């Protein structure tokens, strides 16, 4: 009889387990209603990207933030010096071209050249750089600029994990650097020598995600994003096959603009993110 009761109790617990786990997963940070980022004023935001042009993923959101008086810093892990199919292109020349393109694109968005930080690693080689070196650089930047939010590629996306090497590495390094920044015993010389104090970030926006939970209406700045996209001549369309100059081929330009101005069913244009409002410092 006791065994029957125990079996029944166990079965009841198993039936309740999914609901209990779901309730436990909803932490206070996840449950709270997120504020509207487009109402921010006087804040600092950092965008971490593997390559020049990856900052386009959040360019509309950045345009709105800059317009509202916020400060935006772009951190680029690599120079993008390998992504060309032009057989006459060299790595050194491509790095220079891509730098000019990204500066021009961000100028359109409203981000000045001095707010673009180049870490200078080779395209496609980020996974072969010592991870501790990369984490320390991100940690140092976060401690120095003390951002209210960090934007990055989603480290949890299946596409990121399995397809894109630099994307994968930059995604994980960014969150690891953010975690390290919160504890003074990671890279203690930052504080001892430079006076950079620990800093905890509690607002992350991840793009290239398969779990979007937050979107920003960028309809009013979509034209700016489209124009910024068209600065990356060496990456999109004919310019990737044969680079002939900074001006994008007219047909390619039309395609790029059409892509950027594609509207949702409600007639608006959005950028979507997985927003995580909690500390990664555990």
Task: Jot down its keywords.
282 residues; alpha/beta; Rossmann fold; seven-stranded mixed β-sheet; 43% helix
What does this protein look like?
With 282 residues, this protein is an alpha/beta fold. It has a domain at 44-217 and 269-276: LmbE-like (Rossmann fold), CATH 3.40.50.10320. 43% of the residues lie in helices and 14% in strands. It contains eleven helices and seven strands. The chain has helices at residues 2-25, 28-31, 59-67, 91-109, 131-145, 158-162, 165-181, 189-194, 222-229, 238-241, 250-260, and strands at 44-49, 71-78, 116-121, 149-153, 204-207, 214-217, 270-276. A seven-stranded mixed β-sheet has the order 3-2-1-4-5-7-6. α4 (91-109) links the parallel β2 (71-78) and β3. The relative contact order is 0.16.
List the helices and strands and how they pair.
Elements: H1 2-25, H2 28-31, E1 44-49, H3 59-67, E2 71-78, H4 91-109, E3 116-121, H5 131-145, E4 149-153, H6 158-162, H7 165-181, H8 189-194, E5 204-207, E6 214-217, H9 222-229, H10 238-241, H11 250-260, E7 270-276
Helix pairs in contact: 4-9, 5-7, 9-11
Poorly predicted segments: 9-31
Q: Gyration radius, to the nearest Å?
A: 22 Å
How many beta-strand runs? Answer: 7
Distance between the termini: 46 Å
**CATH homology superfamily of the domain at 44-217 and 269-276:** LmbE-like
Overall pLDDT, averaged? 90
CATH third-tier fold name of the domain at 44-217 and 269-276: Rossmann fold
Largest sheet: spatial strand order: 3-2-1-4-5-7-6
